[in-house]
Amino acid sequence: MENDLRRAIVDQELFVVYQPVVMLELTVDRRAFPPHAAAVEALVRWRHPVRGVVPPAEFIGVAEECGAIGALGEFVLDTACRQFVAWKRDLGRLAPRLLAVNLSRAQLNDGGFVAYVSRTLHDSGMDPAELQLEVTESLAAQDESVQARLRQLKELGLTLALDDFGTGYSSLSSLHQLPVATVKIDRSFVSQAVESAHHRVLIEATVRVAVSLNINTVAEGVESDAQASVVRALGCEKGQGYFFSKPLLPESLVDWLRSNDS
Ligand code: C2E
Ligand code: MG
Ligand code: MG
Question: Could you list the residue range(s) of the whole structural domain that residue 190 is in?
């Protein structure tokens, strides 16, 4: 797998798909569908010559262990920033407003990473304020060196999001210590929000704490109309999930954006 992955990067078998993140107010309340994308999240895929399209869960870990995550992460950031700038140029008001890119631990431990991000923003012509880097709770809550690197990234003018919130070990009470603009509420809460009062309370508490800290909220993994309505009622600002759209190839994302244009 390790050799396969190294070869995949050289042979350009990796590609990026984009999943829309929508404003729930516009989508749920006004029944606009599909809504304009407030943001898109870049998600990597591997088109393996034998295995077909391989999801990231099956190779991100390997990439981290074998030291290929740096090259992989650079490919995703570079590809996504260029794509985002092209959409802005070609689509105008229909273009997504924010680009979210996932980071892994190994990237944050790399001393050259901040300079790399700065260079990529510059080379792609992307406005730093339009880039949001997603880190997981356990990563963001780590030692002082990681915290320092996150602060340096913020100083470039971009924002940070806390991914999969609720699954890690940091709690609501430590949210104020993390330098994040957005909290993404994990799918495991959203998927039970309709049936379970307990999960609704957890979502509501998260939203309240976030709002008090001026942090945006995104409900992840929204799969039904009922879930969209519940997370909207609990105060989540944005939603992401198969109910709105699966992750899409660039050309399909453009179709999705255009299909709502009247
Ligand atoms: P994530 O950042 O939390 O991304 C959301 C994942 O949930 C994506 O899976 C997405 O396809 C999936 N998803 C979205 N809506 C729904 C839904 O309604 N139902 C269900 N069941 N799933 C939904 P994906 O693309 O397989 O990625 C899995 C994880 O791999 C990501 O979780 C992220 O942690 C990591 N990942 C993906 N791309 C990258 C990357 O470029 N770099 C790094 N470091 N990690 C990445
Ligand atoms: Mg993410
Ligand atoms: Mg997530």
Answer: 2-245
Q: What is the pLDDT of residues 119-174, one digit of tens each?
A: 999 999 999 999 999 998 777 776 788 888 999 999 999 999 999 999 876 678 88
Six-digit token string for 257: 């954006």
Q: Identify which of 21, 53, 102, 187 to mutate to test ligand 1's pocket (most ligand atoms within 8 A of the CB).
A: 102
Q: Which of 168, 181, 200 is nearest to 130 (CA)?
A: 181
What letter represents residue 88's amino acid? K
Q: Is 22 in the pocket of ligand 1 (CB under 6 A)?
A: no
pLDDT of residue 80: 98
Residue 258 inside a domain? The answer is no
Q: Is residue 256 part of a domain?
A: no
- Which residue's CA is minimally distant from atom 22 of ligand 1? 221
Tell me how many degrees the CA angle 181-169-147 measures, rounded to the nearest 5.
Answer: 50
C-beta separation of 150 from 156 below 8 A: no
Lowest mean pLDDT among 10-19, 86-95, 135-144, 202-211: 135-144
How far, in Å, is the centroid of ligand 2 from the Cα of 163?
5
- Report how far ligand 3's centroid is from the alpha carbon of 134 (Å): 9
Q: Which one of the ligands is nearest to 100 CA?
A: 2
Model confidence band, residue 261 (pLDDT cutoffs 50, 70, 90): low
Q: What's the whole-model pTM score?
A: 0.96
Q: Which ligand is nearest to the CA of 42?
A: 1
* Residue position matching structure tokens 């660039």: 250
Verify whether ligand 1 is closer than 6 Å to residue 106 (CB atom): no
Asked whether residue 102 is domain-assigned, the answer is: yes
Number of domains in the chain: 1
Q: Is residue 227 part of a domain?
A: yes
CATH code of the domain containing 216? 3.20.20.450
Instruction: Choose one of 43, 167, 245, 246 to mutate for the ligand 1 pocket test, by most ligand atoms within 8 angstroms of C-beta.
Output: 43
Using CA atoms, how far apart are residues 163 and 102, in angstroms rounded to an integer? 8
